[in-house]
Design goal:
By secondary structure, the chain is α/β, with parallel strands linked by helices. The chain is built from twelve helices and 19 strands. It binds flavin-adenine dinucleotide.
């Protein structure tokens, strides 16, 4: 097998990590990318005004996987970076994930007794999914959890997914937990960092191998897929299969950029958990360690994905779409059993960069 050639469709974290491991194992790898650049959604670049920017929104790398850390640190020097997010509901601001500061604000004098119950149930510093707290035996704890849902989660979920929070899969609901204590910080992983010269430079080194040939500006369609050669596909399955069973919905984001000379946000990112259409704003000076006197704010407004009009960025985490996706998986297996499907779009599943990388390493090592 070591002399067969792999086709890897897509040059994001999944495709590029897999390509590298396959090449190091002796395979030839052809990487084909639809966009005009490598690195998928992690792509970053300098704007014409000379400000460094993550083109598809802020990308913060975090992982606790020793295997992923060993892999990514081979291709970049990483600068430690702890991400902080502030929630804003109207005039009220609080740290995210929500912690005891928000409880103090919501419950006043009753806060301390609820905090004691939470600590004795889950432990000081634990991070607990909101739906778990909502099923606590104490009425007071349950009603505090419901208040957190109303303020923090419900408006944001509606904007982000175009769905009511009750319709989301539990895994999506659990992404932002409740902190049992006053601890702050968005992630808890042991490795939280950014590549010092950016993700695109990291991807260039990843793909720089004599057995890898990478090509951009070329879209692979069903008829381009070889029948016998091994293929790793990281794009959208409904599109690949001609929407035969109907289209899967995706969410896209409209990014509004504002070059500025001021620092406005109290933390790198402010999430708008209220009725305005935008979901968040990020000051790139925090995340890319740029000179704050000439920074760029990135404001995000979610919108429906329309093929050919914008980019499909997020699969919608709702059960009925998982079923449709499963049907596409079965269809592809019938017509192309030689195709392995991986990554955020192809699996129709929210994954962070480290998870995309981890599954690519597994696939490419076992292949
Ligand atoms: C706004 C936003 C913010 C995010 N922030 C974070 C963060 O802070 N931390 C984090 O860990 N993760 C973050 N992510 C998630 C991260 O971007 C993904 O986990 C990661 O991109 C997954 O990599 P992938 O290779 O599976 O997919 P992608 O990066 O989407 O790469 C897939 C590539 O395949 C190409 N492609 C698709 N179909 C075809 C085809 N038919 N032919 C040729 N090429 C094709 C696409 O153009 C794309 O470049 C964020 C995602 C978004 C959208």
């Amino acid at each position: 097998m070591a002399n067969s050639t792999w086709l890897v469709v897509g040059s994001g974290f999944t495709g590029a990590s897999a390509a590298r491991v396959l090449a190091e194992r002796g395979f030839r790898v052809r990487v084909v990318e639809r966009r005009s650049h490598i690195a998928g959604n992690a792509f970053d670049e300098y704007t014409p005004a000379g400000v460094f920017l993550h083109r598809y929104g802020p990308h913060l790398f975090h992982t606790s996987s020793p295997r992923v850390i060993d892999f990514v640190t081979r291709f970049a020097v990483w600068r430690p970076y702890l991400h902080h997010v502030t929630g804003q509901s109207g005039d009220l601001r609080y740290p995210l994930p929500p912690n005891f500061l928000l409880l103090d604000h919501l419950l006043g004098e009753r806060s301390k007794s609820v905090q004691q119950l939470l600590i004795s149930s889950y432990g000081d510093g634990a991070r607990v999914p909101l739906h778990v707290v909502e099923s606590h035996e104490s009425d007071d704890v349950r009603s505090a959890a419901q208040a957190i849902r109303r303020i923090v989660f419900t408006p944001y979920t509606r904007k982000m997914w175009g769905e009511h929070a009750d319709n989301l899969l539990p895994s999506a609901q659990a992404r932002v937990p409740v902190v049992i204590g006053y601890q702050e910080g968005y992630f808890t992983d042991s490795f939280q960092a950014l590549p010092t010269d950016g993700y695109t430079a990291f991807f260039r080194r990843l793909l720089d191998h004599p057995r890898i040939a990478a090509e951009t500006d070329r879209e692979i369609s069903l008829s381009d897929l070889p029948k016998t050669q091994p293929v790793l596909f990281t794009g959208a399955l409904d599109q690949l299969l001609g929407f035969r069973n109907g289209a899967l919905p995706y969410r896209s984001i409209k990014f509004r950029l504002e070059a500025t000379r001021r620092r406005m946000t109290p933390s790198a990112t402010v999430n708008y958990n209220d009725d305005r259409p935008q979901t968040r704003i990020t000051d790139m000076a925090f995340t890319v360690a740029a000179d704050p006197s000439s920074t760029i704010w990135v404001e995000e407004t979610p919108e429906e994905f329309l093929c050919g009009k914008n980019e499909a960025l997020y699969p919608v985490p709702v059960a009925r779409w998982r079923e449709l996706h499963n049907a596409y998986m079965a269809l592809l297996k019938d017509v192309h059993p030689n195709v392995i499907v991986a990554g955020r779009m192809a699996r129709y599943q929210y994954v962070d960069m480290d998870q995309a990388c981890a599954s690519a390493l597994r696939i490419a090592t076992d292949a």
